[in-house]
Amino acid sequence: MNTFQNTLAFAQAQDNADPLRAFRDEFHLPQHDGRPAIYFTGNSLGLQPKAAANALKQELDDWARFGVEGHFRAKHPWVSYHEELTASTARLVGTQEEEVVVMNQLTSNLHFLLVSFFRPNGKRKIILTEQRPFPSDTYAFASQIAFHGGNPDVDLVEVQPRVGEHLLRTEDILAKINELGDELALVCFGGVNFYTGQAFDMEAITEAAHSVGAIAGFDLAHAAGNLKLELHDWNADFACWCSYKYLNSGPGSVAGAFVHQRHLGPRPTQGLPTQKRTLRHGVPQGPENGDPAEVYLGKGLPLFAGWWGHDKQERFKMDRIFKPMPTAEAWQVSNAPVLSMAVHRVALEQFDRAGMDRLRAKSEQLTGYLKFILDTVAKETKTNLEVITPKDPAQRGCQLSVLAHGKGRGLFDALTARGVIADWREPNVIRLAPVPMYNSFEDVFRFGSILQDTLQGA
After folding, report:
1. Domain 8-48+355-455: what homologous superfamily?
2. CA-to-CA distance for 395 and 204, rounded, in angstroms?
3. Mind giving me the DSSP string for 361-373?
4. What are the pLDDT digits (tens) for 376-415?
């Protein structure tokens, strides 16, 4: 598509040619004045798949029918429920199946992974992140630094944009990594910055972090289901993400985690034992004498243990010796939240059918059309609508962050009153995210018409 047009006929023609158009009918669309609202906030909470209700009902019916026996007799046995999500998750984020697990929630998973991967030692104690990551990440980093006796005001470093710029340049990120050098313990960026919508070069950041001896991890809350990810090939050490934004799995739903294969314990296919170090009554067991009393995976990586991370073949023996799973499942501490996972299973199945390649291709066109519409309306209304998200589609997902100079919150509220469900972020950004799974080109055209009428006081 080389030429966009600000006409309904153009938008409808693009929708008619869209190979993913049928997915829109699989979602409940919020209504406004008897027609679908313009829902551009899937970057905050994705829409509900229509199949979610039946998925939940299945688990509720099995609970009613079997009680505790549902762990083994349910249609989708609860004791192994998370395993049904593994293959789809691996395809979604570009990993080996053994490297991913669906568990807990986002910041919980970030903390559990930081326990393993943030291990300050001597002067190597700094965590590097982007300017203004999502606040929960900042809280997690600062509290982990403080837990280890460090000073968050010194040991938590944010890469700043250049004066007068909103975005981070990749060369500046890499330069900061090299500048910190052997003081750097961990680099942890968002895959996509929640405020600006900038997508970072995760492969380059990982390579630079490793070149100075640091760990590289990512919070993919705004990247999973939005970007084409290849975590295994990019060589990232760890990552975590939520499922309620682009993954459409419901408010507060279950999250995911990735640990690269090289950090996992010995695998049975190698003919090695599944355990090299255990903990008995707080005393380390194994050949390493004098080490701290921590629970380790086979590669010497510490973790906080729980019974669902224990070897599943022996889990119900209730042994007091922790024997970690040889996969990312070792990081599990509790059994599956089945009701959340039931909806997540529906959502992952949709992503399998749609395919990230097709979703990404549509996303680039849909977001490109939104940028065209914004520019057109700005010109026609003589309004400064500054898009601070990168112009290059390779450096963004489907979110555009807009500074409406001189309008701000008043414009956002006026759009909301007219049926545009977008997102406001302090101090002055309107976030717009046309999601390729269920948004249409006609949605974008209608938004432009509402925006223009609002700015002209119609």
Report:
1. Aspartate Aminotransferase, domain 1 (3.90.1150.10)
2. 13
3. HHHHHHHHHHHHH
4. 999 999 999 999 999 999 999 999 999 988 888 999 999 9
